[in-house]
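To the structural biology subgroup,

Please find below the input and predicted structure for Major facilitator superfamily (MFS) profile domain-containing protein, which we are adding to the shared reference set this quarter. The sequence is reproduced verbatim from the submission form. If anyone notices a discrepancy with their own records, reply to this email rather than editing the shared folder directly, so we keep one authoritative version.
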Amino acid sequence: MNQALGFLISILIVVFVFVVSATAAGLFAETLGLWKKPIIGAVAAACVVFSAYVSAPRFKLLSAAIWLIIGAITAWVLSSIFMYAEDAATSLPLYVTYTSGLLTLMACTIWHKKHIGEVLR
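Predicted structure (tokenized):
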């Protein structure tokens, strides 16, 4: 029961972090006059993968990898639904989002192997 509760809390944390990080990144990009979609995607992907890793009670890397897959599918769907005029001819924001998530997962993996040792722990 404790594991199930831990994973439920982890899910709530990841969803909350996604909403807050995407909103903050959008406001930041808007303030600086930057292209919002790749910044929102990159920041949200990194925050989701990292928060999944940190908040998972067990199987941290597996949890982060699953959230990366969920996030990649979500990003693909959202990029299709919320198509802005400046995004019409490119998939760059989606690739930036995927790259950010993968780099964050790689960083978590390196840290995990260095400090914890076991990959499936």
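Summary notes: The radius of gyration is 15 Å. The helical segments are 2-32, 36-55, 60-81, 92-115.

Regards,
Lab coordination
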